[in-house]
Amino acid sequence: MSNLLRSTMSARLVKLPLELPPDPSDLSANDSDEDDEFLDAESDELEAGDALGSLGGHGGYSGLGPPAIPFLKPRVRAPKKPNPDFAPISAMDYFADALQVLVPSRSLDCRVYYTPPGGGGETTVLVCHHGAGYSGLSFASLAREVRAQGRGEVGLLAADARRHGKTKSTKEGEEDPDLSIDVLVDDFTDMLREVFPDPTVAPTLLLVGHSMGGSVVVRACPLLLDAKYRVSGVAVLDVVEGSALEALPHMHSLLNARPDGFDSVEEAVEWHVKTKTIRSAQSARVSVPSIVVPAGAADAATDNINGVKAQPPHAYVWRTPLRSTAGYWSGWFTGLSTAFLAARAARLLLLAGTDRLDKPLMIAQMQGKFQMVVVGGVGHMMHEDDPMHVADLLLEFWRRNDRARIPLRAGVSVKGVGEG
């Protein structure tokens, strides 16, 4: 295989478009002469749409993508008016509850989005971990489809990882920057222990991880089983160890195609849709607002000419500057195949392409050790691109492997293996 072809396949893995994305300044046709006014209005709208109280409850790219290297000098250009076609959508209609869960053992205050399962008896919850750079709201569209197709029988929980979304450190001073795999796994398992403190009455868990999140859930599976939680399955979305590690040397060059910021949240949504990073505008309008933040004062540049201080080059920047986490990337994916195949639960691998199976997984797949499905017409963010299809596949996986749902005849009792 030529180096050029190998590089191209690596780019397909992380779903970075082979052509350079358009300059964000070309995404919207209208310039604004009143940028301060619309930026203030946009900030108010975003805060109102994603506040904790906004969720009325019942009681491509792999996510490795930090912003591009900034220009040495800020561009001189007029900000653009937000395009209302890409305005943020509140998650109110996608999840039942938005919770803040204190995890003292990890010094975290975690944002958790949750739609509990309905009905009585044995229940199952899909517990989802997002990819790097994204947030729990990347599962919003999937959550709504799971609720609709599963008729409320299956719940869905998605949390923001540390340094992502609205999860915050409770330590005084600066937030711990560590995003190593062991830290992320401990964060995930301890968060679940706070949400479901008693494993004997907790619902059955079906773990779902996208990209980096796939590495987290497969490693969390044995820890949760050892803690006596019921885990019926592990589903990994669009990540394979061999191809991911092969792509890492190209990441910095490929990530330079990303803009370093946006003039509005609408522009951020529009960029994700027009570059096909997220192929569903509806999904992007829910999830993208959580991955950008208003640029702080530290981002403002100073023009020394005449002592005039310039405005920041962009009004919004990426929430998680992942370029500084490059040292963790290899650790996220090394050993992923082994951990996936060793999971003591049913295993499902959903891929957006057929050229990604590394040798250990190819052998195991031929031996029938896990289920693999190639999902057509989607990019790396498959659960946002086609949430209806992905929900259907996950629910089918749940029905096939959740033994609590198997009906038994009257008079038939259940005993553990080895019991009398």
Keywords:
disordered N terminus, nine-stranded mixed β-sheet, AB_hydrolase_fold, 420 residues, disordered C terminus, globular, serine esterase, alpha/beta
Structural domain count: 1
Q: Alpha-carbon distance between the termini?
A: 58 Å
Largest sheet: 9 strands, mixed
In the CATH hierarchy, what is the architecture at level 2? 3-Layer(aba) Sandwich
CATH class: Alpha Beta
Order of helices and strands: HHEEEHEEHEHEHHHHEEHHEHEHH
- Overall mean pLDDT stands at 80
Structural class: alpha/beta
| Radius of gyration (Å) | 22 Å
**Count of beta strands:** 11
Uncertain residue ranges: 1-22, 24-74, 297-309, 406-420
Tell me the β content.
5-15%
CATH topology: Rossmann fold
**CATH superfamily caption:** Alpha/Beta hydrolase fold, catalytic domain
Residue share in helix:
25-40%
User: What form results from the Cα inertia axes?
Assistant: globular
Quickly count the helices: 14
Any overview of this molecule?
The chain has 420 residues and is α/β, with parallel strands linked by helices. Helices cover 33% and strands 14% of the residues. Strands 1, 2, 3, 4, 5, 6, 7, 10 and 11 form a nine-stranded mixed sheet that branches. The chain has a two-stranded antiparallel sheet with strand order 8-9. Helix 3 (140-149) packs across helix 14 (387-401). Belongs to the AB hydrolase superfamily. GO terms for molecular function: protein methylesterase activity. This is Protein phosphatase methylesterase 1.
Please summarize what this structure is.
The chain has 420 residues and is α/β, with parallel strands linked by helices. The chain contains 14 helices and eleven strands.
